[in-house]
Structure formats: structure tokens, C-alpha cells
Amino acid sequence: MRNPNTRLPNRNTLYLGRSGSGKSTALKHNPAIPGRGAPVALWDPNEDHKARRYRRIGDFVKALIKADQVWRTQRRGYRIAYCGVNSQEAYNIWCKAVGEILDGRWLTYLIAEELADVSPHAGAAPPPAKKLLNQCRKYGGIFHGTSQKPTEISKTYYSGCDHRYIGVVKTLDEVKRMSAEIGLSRDEFNTLENIDEVQVQLWYDNSKTVEKWTHVF
Questions:
Q1: How far is 127 from 205, CA to CA, in rounded Å?
Q2: pLDDT category, 169, cuts 50, 70, 90?
Q3: CA angle (14 as vertex; 87, 46 as ends), nearest 5
Q4: Is the pLDDT of residue 41 over 90?
Q5: Which residues pair with 103 in a beta bridge?
Q6: 38, exposed or middle or buried, with CB in 10 Å at 0-12, 13-18, 19+?
Q7: DSSP symbol at 215
Q8: Average pLDDT score over residue span 123-145
Q9: Which of 22, 70, 131, 132 makes the best surface tag, with the fewest CB within 10 Å?
Q10: Radius of gyration over alpha carbons of the chain, in Å?
């Protein structure tokens, strides 16, 4: 991390909801993430995104360093993903590696899928992820993270992300937690209307207002 810029806003974003809730749709159609021409690093064990993929974390780190050097000299964007073993050790290395390339002179996009798989508990995240979420904003990092199990992810992600897309969840405990997170009653939260293969709805919370986000296929 270099060249801090404390004027940068917090654009970190969470996408939460059960499988089929539309969180991946919200992520992929979020205009805040450039389609091309920008530096993008992904934690993508399920290979959900288009990117240059690496199955060994060491190869990912080498490729990321090289791509970052090209970006700094030629402004050539990239999308590089780690898609190997979904382990806590590998995720810690991923967090450290993407943190190292951040620079407050430009924006770098960080996408991490299925955060519950790399959250040992619902308390504070392990040090590499905690540092990344707490500091990436002022170094141009914009984190986008997803989870099917919103009550199992580390609280660091909630405190570090000012934007949230929250879709239908599985259990009553998850409804209680998610509705409280965005300041809605349980009845209000449950008014999302999802129609198979036609549309998805999620709640979008930008830390100031809460509204329904709808995508029609």
C-alpha cells in the first residue's frame, strides 16, 4: 500500500443472500465495477468470473505483480483470479498480495467470492483480511465480497463495507440479522419479489438510504 489518499470515499460493497437470491447478478451488473481497462484482482474458487485464472496461489501472486508493473507503466488493465484450493492460508496470501499493489493515485477493484468459506468465525477477520478491509479505501482499493451465509462471515466485512446488496436469505435468524443491519422490519425485508428467470430483487443500502434494487433478465 502506498500513496494514501484520505479523501477517497468508502466504496466497499457486500452482496449477501442465499443461492439464487441474485447477489451474483447484482455484482456482475454493478456499474461501479468497470468492464475493462482497470486493475481487477479476484478470489474466485468457483470460477464465476471471466479472468486469467491461476490455480496455485504462488502463480497468482507472480502474475499479479507483473500485471501491476504493466499497469503502472502502460495503464493496461487486467482481470486476474485465484481459483485454486479454497483455504484460509491461500486467502491470507491473497489479501496480503492485493494489499501490496494498492496505490492511492488510482482505483483497484478487489472481488472475493463466498466469504463465509474464509471466515473462521463471525468475530474479527484474520489479520491480513482485517488490514485489507480497514485500510484499502485510502489506497484506492474497492472491495466487493459475496456470501450465501451472511451470519457466518467476519464482522470486519460489515464494518468495512458502506454499501450492501442483501437478497433473500434462508433462516429466520438470517432475516432478523439482515433486516436489522439495514434498518427494516422483518415484514418489510421479506417483501422482495424474485421471479425465476424473469427478475431478481435485493435491498441496496448505501449507509444513507435503503431501496429495492431490481434486475430484469
A1: 27
A2: very high
A3: 40
A4: yes
A5: 2
A6: middle
A7: E
A8: 97
A9: 70
A10: 17
Cell of residue 47, nine digits: 470460477
pLDDT tens-place string over residues 43-94:
999 999 999 999 999 999 999 999 999 999 999 999 999 999 999 999 999 9
Please name the amino acid found at residue 69.
Answer: Q
Q: Which helix (H) or strand (E) segment is 147 a member of? A: strand 141-147
Q: Are strands 52-54 and 78-82 parallel, antiparallel or unpaired?
A: parallel
Cβ–Cβ under 8 Å, residues 79 and 51 = yes
pLDDT 10s digits, 95-107? 999 999 999 999 9
CB 168 within 8 A of CB 21: yes
Rounded to 5°, the CA angle 187-192-194 comes to 145
pLDDT band at 197 (very low <50, low <70, confident <90, very high): confident
What's this model's pTM, rounded to 2 decimal places? 0.95
164: how many CB neighbours lie within 10 A of its CB?
Answer: 23
Strand order, beta sheet including 13-16? 52-54, 78-82, 39-43, 108-112, 141-147, 13-16, 163-166, 199-205, 210-216
Please report the domains of the chain, with CATH numbers, ordered by start residue: 13-168 (3.40.50.300)
Residues 83 and 55 sit within 8 Å (Cβ to Cβ)? yes
- Average the pLDDT over 152-164 and give the result: 96
